[in-house]
Amino acid sequence: MLQPERVKVSRLNFLRIIVSIFSIVCVHSTALAAVPVHCHPVAASDLEFYSHKLQTFFNDIHFSPVFNENKITAYKVTSVQKNSRIENYGFEPGDSIEKINNTPISNSEKLISTLSKIRQLPSIELLIQKNHGQKIRYQYLFDPNISCSET
């Protein structure tokens, strides 16, 4: 049986390795944390309106899939109906919705499934790449008893 080789590492080199690993972890974590969060309490009347009339939701906001290497990676907002209830929640033509509740949207069934269960959720979070390239997390609160910091 082969025995693993022991490698002698000085304390200084060991500390350098630990600092390097820590730096990599911190850079990765801060990159995620650097995405700004916009919090939107959702009016109960809007939630009730769209949860009972899902087709109206899709009439008020139109999407098209975004493909990368023949796979859907997001859904781009192509239009938002003027004077609709959905217009008040930050969606603009050109926005790409990449994730819902930290789950990539890889097909329309995931999008529709989440939207159809919206009344049972206290909130949802969307990762959106704005038309100008900035990524923003939109947090939509459905329960009036919670705040952004509690979700």
Helices, by number, come to: 4
Shape designation: globular
Low-confidence stretches: 12-16, 19-32
Q: Whole-number average pLDDT?
A: 77
DSSP, total strands: 7
How would you sum up this structure, described in words?
32% of the residues lie in helices and 29% in strands. It has helices at 11-33, 44-52, 54-60, 108-116; strands spanning 37-41, 61-68, 71-80, 96-100, 103-104, 123-129, 135-141. Strands 1, 2, 3, 4, 5, 6 and 7 form a 7-stranded mixed β-sheet that branches. The chain is globular, with a radius of gyration of 21 Å. Residues 12-16 and 19-32 have low confidence and may be disordered.
Write the layout of secondary structure elements.
Layout: H1 11-33, E1 37-41, H2 44-52, H3 54-60, E2 61-68, E3 71-80, E4 96-100, E5 103-104, H4 108-116, E6 123-129, E7 135-141
Defining traits:
151 residues; alpha+beta; 4 helices; 7 strands
Provide a concise account of the structure shown:
The protein has 151 residues and is an alpha+beta fold.
